[in-house]
Amino acid sequence: MxxxxxxxxxxxxxxxxxxxxxAQGLAAAGVNIVMNGFGDPDEIxxxxxxxxxxxxxxxxxxxxxxxxxxIKDLISTARTELGSVDILVNNAGIQYVAPIExxxxxxxxxxxAINMSSAFHTIHHALPLMRKQGWxxxxxxxxxxxxxxxxxxxxxxxxxxxxxxxTKTVALECAENNITVNAICPGYVKTPxxxxxxxxxxxxxxxxxxxxxxxxxxxxxxxxKFVSVEQLSGLALFLCxxxxxxxxxxxxxxxxxxTAA
Length: 261
Prior knowledge:
- This protein is α/β, with parallel strands linked by helices.
- 47% of the residues lie in helices and 13% in strands.
- It has 2 domains: 211 residues, NAD(P)-binding Rossmann-like Domain (Rossmann fold, 3-Layer(aba) Sandwich); 37 residues, no CATH class.
């Protein structure tokens, strides 16, 4: 594992869930962190100060991932306050579920903007900085739905498929600059958001939470286990290491066998 101490990572959507877990893992390796996302200000500040207890610098930027100018400011603030942009993790995302004929166009636009277009804008501004310093790691959090589809998730599936295309293209464009670009494709991850969905789905369907887990969420995950935030954080840390310097343009599935079937 290469020494990442003193490098700076921007992680979008890092105030909770997967993004926060990756921030915690990178901070433990000595990486300065730029948090981003929505949430209760007091909770965000608690997470930020907890990161700094690892002996690193951590700042928070409230850029709205639907607004390109705010994304530009996110990148420039990271460089100004922390000195560089070495690692970029595009994790921000939202979801909406409905048949396509009932899918609100404004929900489509928001999901495409946050889940896919925001990654273009962050890379657009961060990549020149990485080229200049001769090193960089870009990690795009895609999904099993970047490889396969499920009904009623047209915008999400489209965005995640697009993220894989963006990953491949940018990887080729900077392959000779010591910059790697990869995508992680998780299955269902045990986050507070998913835990809330379990309870809501059980109530809506009139079934037990155990049935929701086994017969709905984990039906396609052959291991019958949720992916953990810690597993994704560990993978992200590996992708930033020297051991992964020749891995670029690819996707790594962490989905309990979902897309193998």
